[in-house]
Amino acid sequence: MSLFNRKKPQGLTNKSSGRTEVTRYAARPLQFVQSSTASRALVLGLNWRTILLAGGTNAAITIAREGAATHYCVVGGQTVGYGLVPKDKTQTLPEQSYPAALLAGRQHSGDALFALSLSSTEIWVAQTRSGRPSGIDEVLIERNGQVDKLALAWLSKRLAQNPSSVVYTDIDVSTTGAKSHVSSLASLMTIPAMPADALLALPAANFLAQIKVPMPLLKVAGAVLLLWVCNTGYDAWNASVTAQKRAEEMAQRQQNEDPKKVWLESINRLGGGRLNPSIDNLRPLRKSLGELPVNWRGWHLKTAVCKPQTPNAGKQAWSCSANYESDGKVNTATNVELKSSIPQGFTAKFAPTQSLSLEWSVESQVSPLDVAALPPRAHHLLVTASKLQELLPALTDAPKITFTPLTVTPPRRFDGTAIAMPSDVDLPSEAPISLKGPLRTIDALIDRGVAAEWRSLTLSYGQISAEAVNLRTSALQVELNGIFYAKN
Predict the structure, then answer these.
(1) Of 181, 205, 420, 469, which sits 20 to 30 A from 1 (CA to CA)?
(2) Measuring CA to CA, how many Å separate 214 from each of 12, 206, 219, 221?
(3) In whole angstroms, what is the distance from residue 64 CA to residue 54 CA?
(4) Within 10 A of 44 (CB to CB), how many other CB atoms are there?
(5) CA 434 to CA 450: how far, in whole Å?
């Protein structure tokens, strides 16, 4: 990577006192980190604010202008980031300039903290909430070579405010006790970006829009206009409405039949019946399996099956059932004795004599599949496959990753004919994944962040001899099935 525009923020000068104040919402000079091929640049130093009342792009531009910014970026119509590109800059702004905080937020859909090294004396820090940038992303400077301590102090302060935040960094943060993942500015360069993610120059302000018309004059003008409308007559009004309606219908028809637009809409509707790939929904399930008794007063676990239910209001429940068999010995507990010792959080179902089951459920946060944010197939074949390769010594067999396009119903014109898919539109694809191995395989998946839409889990228990013990053997074996998604 190469760097340019490394000017540090100079603050805002208070002319009345001669002091320097850096206000909370003032735009600050931006810095850029450019890839070695000069094909992309990351933008650092933006001020991120929430757009209230769904104001959209117009509200974002207004907020950026109030901060005296020159450039801005809108995230999902609800968040705006803005900053200042100095007028005396000699280098041209790269065409593909994307805010680093925006791309970083795509690594985690929840709350996260980022501390990524720029040099031996500089480190970039940022915070995201629900996957969106928040506050100010900035470059911290420690000229005495203590930049790691400076970053740890910043992380500790944010973790005290939000302990559930996940940390992404390339420095040692073990002293914070936070869950961390390895990341770097170089890795942000590889995260897929869309044209809407690019940094944009603020449009020129409209002089007429800044004119303030006195309220009494507006009221008089409104009264005159009302009288004029009443006097135009019903026929003229009806003709105008009819012409406008025809024009709107024609414009709507042309817009609705735009091939690329309607195909993208159809593809985006795929997310309604699928979930975003995640590893977080396995955590509560794995915890519950750790609380499941293997031997329960003479009754031995045989199998346990867990399946996810239909999501509701952003949450999904896993429904689980474990089957037990009696060893038939004298001290085996009866159904009455077992009922008084049912583990907390479980419900027992008793059969007449030789079998019974324990049932339970766990809940996790989920979100609908965001097709636009999916990684390409190449990401899975490189990054995801590498993570699974690390698990091969402990798996019963090598998992296969074979992608096939998802089925999309072609959109149709008003006359009922199908609209052909444009050549520049990619169909999302899916790849089923099945992992078989010891129960500890789930822990390894969680540690490595292997995200998928997980569909089922089966746990089996069986005795093994001491001679047969190896990396792939365990009394508790698990089969985990899910789906990988790709944007192409």
Answers:
(1) 181
(2) 33, 19, 9, 11
(3) 16
(4) 27
(5) 13
Is the CB of residue 427 less than 8 Å from the CB of residue 488? yes
CA distances from 435 to 388, 390, 469 (A): 9, 13, 20
Helix axes of 440-448 and 283-290: crossing angle, nearest 10 degrees: 150
Q: Is the dihedral of CA 90, 96, 102, 107 positive or negative?
A: negative
- HSE (side-chain half, CA atoms, 13 Å) at 173: 26
| Residue pointed to by tokens 């429904």 | 319
pLDDT at 209 over 70: no
- Cα→Cα distances 321→11, 301, 338, 359, Å: 62, 11, 17, 4
Q: H-type helices in 298-439, by residue range? A: 335-339, 377-379, 385-389
Rounded CA-CA distance 71/81 in Å is 9
pLDDT for 33-76, tens place per residue?
A: 887 766 788 999 999 998 876 667 888 888 889 888 999 999 88
CB burial of residue 239 (10 Å; 0-12, 13-18, 19+):
exposed
- Total-model pTM: 0.47
Q: Is the pLDDT of residue 137 over 90?
A: yes
Q: Judge contact between 395 and 436, C-beta under 8 A.
A: yes
